[in-house]
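Record pair follows.
FIRST:
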Amino acid sequence: MPGGITRGRAISAILLIAFAVLPLVAEATGQGYLTNIASRVMIYAIAALSLDLILGYGAMVSFGHAAFIGIGAYAVGISAEHNLWEGTLTIPMAMLAAGLFALVTGAISLRTRGVYFIMITLAFGQMAYYTASSLSAYGGDDGLTIWGRSEFLGNPVLEDDTALYFFVLACLALCWWFASRVVDSRFGRVIAGVRENRARMAAVGFDPYRHQLVAYVIAGMMAGLAGALLANHAEFVSPAYMSWQRSGDLIIMVVLGGMGSLYGAVLGAVAYLALEDVLAGFTEHWRVIFGPMLILIVLYARGGIARAFRREGRDG
């Protein structure tokens, strides 16, 4: 690309600009509800970005990633239940809580490999799910209604749906930028090197376990931010946010968009939620249609949607 701009960065910029102008287009065409749907899409795009950091670049197949979303959402919900609405406190708290959970569970999970890593992350995710389900003081199985959204310096600015939309967009842009810095850094190259050959990276002096654990915590904190935003968007939190099915949905988003490509993770979230919305309009059993579509993509379009924008190799 001219001027040293990579294809991936150009596509990323186009996607962010498209998100930025969507509210104007939605209002002009009388389809204002699209803004609300797009807010949810961007929140899951942040979660997909975080998963792609460890799955696409680090080959860490976490089947408990939704637990971080749920912890972030409950941090906001429980704070609101105790009349703490200040977003400058609750949102960082949500990220720290998810990061702490990632640190503890990652320190144990990363001592395993392959299918054992998948199973232990699934087990930790289900532990978080059943813990949330048992919190009867905070709704238990029925979930917890939040009677408002986070405030900033006492100002309930997020009560306006358009303001929430642009706040979510700003968070997505920041996460995207940060993830690209991580991927392009020496640290990111070590993570990719461990994915390709763990023994060789250890032999040249790098500590694969420590690098993978740091990446796991970063991904957990980003997913915790997505959970905090989801709680504000829905004004409701539920154990379902951290179920293994939700973790599976996130993996599908990354595979559909293209693993190892940041814009692919965002495209995957957009495509998955758009297909869900369209197919659910035809039948409540929409996964019966979606499943074969995903199988065809895996068999005949490896690299997902991002592959269509690549010339060769990986392009973040």
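SECOND:
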Amino acid sequence: MLKLGNKEFQSRFILGSGKFSLELIKSAIHNAGAEIITLALRRANLGGAENILDFIPENITILPNTSGAINADEAVRIAKLSKEIGCGNFIKIEVIRDTKYLLPDNYETIKATEKLANLGFYPLAYMYPDLNVARDLANAGAAAVMPLASPIGSNRGLLTKEFIQILIDEIEVPIIVDAGIGNPAQACEVMQMGADAVMVNTAIATASNINQMAKAFKLAVEAGREAYLAGLGRIIKQADASSPLTGFLD
């Protein structure tokens, strides 16, 4: 069971809603088995002909993000707006100043996390994996820490694997790996490492069959979690026969 803020979830796969059509959202959620879906506030079109909120089932927890914020004050303002339109107290904090690599500003993210936690939000903090920053985020009231695997939207996989493992080992709040995961095998691997959940958007949105890829990620996350709970087998340098080598033709 994944516990975030005041809620518990069976699924450990969080689906990003950007980059694919509104008509596909409902079926993608179903195939992903997701209970949480992200929402860029800029996609909410209240009063328009097509409002993304109309395509998300009522039993799904919406995780709005502060995409577009370049400092803590802007992130707090976007979070307040998302609450005003009925998106609840969950908020994924994204504070990005860099426009080429889109790396998060860890220090402004800490400021936003503290402010929003004090306002009663459950902040999920998107960050570059740094142990000291992760500790500060947890102390500031983060409901989860979300380290990037590689630059957002790149599908380049677990470039920060070793640093994510440090966070998994040292940080007590849930670790949700976000950004850069490019295929289901990588999602499985990070869950085997002990991550609490995985969030994926681009790898699904850019697949030839979005619904089929959403299902593939669902199964990969489940397999990785089962493997983590089972405890991975040992690794040695020399061969070790799986059948006895003695007792033949005695």
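COMMENT: The domain at 2-230 is CATH 3.20.20.70 (TIM Barrel).
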